[in-house]
Design a protein that fits this description.
Layout: E1 8-15, E2 18-25, E3 31-33, E4 43-48, E5 54-59, E6 72-79, E7 82-83, E8 87-88, E9 98-103, E10 109-114, H1 119-122, E11 126-132, E12 135-141, H2 144-157, E13 161-167, E14 173-179, E15 187-194, E16 197-198, E17 202-203, E18 212-217, E19 223-228, E20 238-243, E21 254-255, E22 266-271, E23 277-282, E24 285-290, E25 331-334, H3 344-347, E26 360-365, H4 372-392, E27 400-406, H5 417-423, E28 425-430
Parallel strand pairs: 2-21, 26-27
Antiparallel strand pairs: 1-2, 3-24, 4-5, 5-6, 6-7, 6-8, 9-10, 10-11, 11-12, 13-14, 14-15, 15-16, 15-17, 18-19, 19-20, 20-21, 22-23, 23-24, 25-28, 26-28
């Protein structure tokens, strides 16, 4: 094996009135796709057993779920120097969709998401399963407060989306990405397990007006990886890490730098307990990196010190323009190719904005098809469509401000149809 050595330098990136650190690597880091795990469909929400030899993830490949949205849980084992073809977790998967696996320190308990049955009354959507004689057996939900949180989210937003959940190896911290729509924006919420079970989830201090999702808690119980497009970086979603400090609060979010982060959507970073291997998602495919020689700037901490979590609401460095609680979250509506009209499902997203006395900012975007001039004009027409809808709901025109971006600031890669669809959008932000 060729050993690579790395030197870390820190540079600052101005974003949302905050200098966020981006790690810069002076030496080449070998990152490779894992074609034996990837398909033309969506792979996401990775997790790895503490031994580093079994990788779990959700895939929309042919299974009990459907390729249009619902997926199933798959497992791949590292045997004889290679990753085996993934197999579905047949004892867990249903036609309703399963996702977001995460594991206890000994690998005997799996926490996961399932929409099977009437989860709102039966204790979902997050469950745990125990490994019994090599088979995962469902053992029940994660408790009343977590269930109530999702039931209220669903009611408030007329449905909602999630994209990533993690439980710490010691079973005391729960973090989930949640928002009004799967395509974003989302925020990270956390719950702490005490003598009375899990607390009602609260928003974490890493939240921005952008999108935070795809969370993983490392084996040290205090290093948290997530992805965000609201803190600056390389474009699209970037991978960040933040640590729980000795006083039980959050430290500074750190962008883990290139080549982990690119203009594409980079997310789903997980690290083995020994700090030798890392896996992540780039444009819905699984990638691998040998991080053996990396220092603790990226890797989980090499410490067995127990940290009593008091709260993780606020980062050490507070930012006035990034509230830890938002009364109105940004709303994103999406458009079909080369049109400025909204479909009914997208129109319904705007129903919650009525009689606002605050300024409303409309940010219009396109995919990269067509010329820049044409795309700017199309983005303007899309903003005008949203403005008309808001005015029909009682919003004065003087309060609605248009920002025309065209093909700038893509949310995803313009090299795939799925990425283009994510870029055809208007983001509605209420001051």
């Amino acid at each position: 094996m060729k050993y690579l050595y790395f030197v870390f330098l820190a540079i600052g990136v101005k974003s949302l009135a905050q200098d966020y650190t981006i790690l810069e690597h002076n030496q080449h880091i070998n990152i490779m796709a894992l074609p034996m795990l990837n398909t033309p469909y969506r792979e996401c929400n990775l997790s790895i057993l503490p031994n580093g030899k079994s990788l779990y993830f959700m895939s929309t490949r042919a299974g009990l779920g459907d390729a249009a949205g619902n997926g199933d849980l798959y497992q791949s084992d590292f045997i004889n120097g290679q990753w085996e073809n993934p197999i579905p977790i047949s004892s867990i998967n249903t036609i309703s969709g399963e996702d977001e696996p995460t594991f206890s320190a000994d690998g005997s308990t799996m926490y996961y998401q399932s929409w099977a049955g009437d989860w709102a009354t039966m204790g979902g959507p997050y469950y745990q399963a125990n490994l019994m004689n090599g088979i995962w057996e469902k053992k029940g939900s994660m408790g009343m407060n977590i269930n109530r949180f999702f039931a209220l989210q669903s009611k408030a937003n007329m449905g909602y989306g999630t994209d990533g959940m993690a439980v710490s190896a010691d079973g005391r911290l729960f973090v989930v990405a949640c928002g009004p729509d799967y395509r974003g924006p989302m925020d990270l919420y956390y719950s702490i397990k005490g003598n009375q079970g899990w607390t009602f989830p609260k928003i974490m201090g890493v939240s921005t007006p952008g999108d935070e999702r795809s969370v993983f808690i490392a084996a040290d119980n205090r290093t948290i990886y997530f992805s965000s497009d609201g803190m600056g970086g390389f474009g699209g979603l970037d991978i960040f890490r933040v640590r729980i400090t000795d006083d039980g609060t959050l430290g500074e979010p750190i962008n883990i730098g290139a080549p982990f982060n690119t203009p594409a959507d980079d997310m789903g970073f997980v690290a083995s307990a020994d700090g030798r291997s890392a896996f992540f998602i780039r444009d819905l495919d699984i990638y691998y990196a040998d991080i053996t020689e990396l220092g603790e700037a990226i890797k989980p901490m090499n410490s067995s010190k127990t940290v009593e979590i008091s709260h993780i609401d606020n980062p050490v460095k507070t930012v006035d323009s990034i509230p830890t609680q938002r009364h109105i979250q940004p709303i994103t509506v999406y458009f079909e190719h080369d049109v400025a009209e909204l479909q009914a499902v997208e129109l319904n997203k705007l129903n919650s904005i009525t009689n606002s006395k605050a300024q409303i900012h409309l940010h219009g975007y396109c995919d990269a098809d067509g010329s820049n001039t044409y795309n700017l004009a199309l983005a303007k027409r899309r903003c005008e469509t949203v403005r008309k809808v808001l005015m029909s709901q009682g919003i004065p025109e003087a309060l609605i401000i248009l920002h025309i971006h065209g093909e700038e600031n893509p949310m995803a890669s313009n090299h795939t149809e799925k990425g283009k669809a994510a870029n055809r959008r208007v983001v509605v932000k209420v001051d």
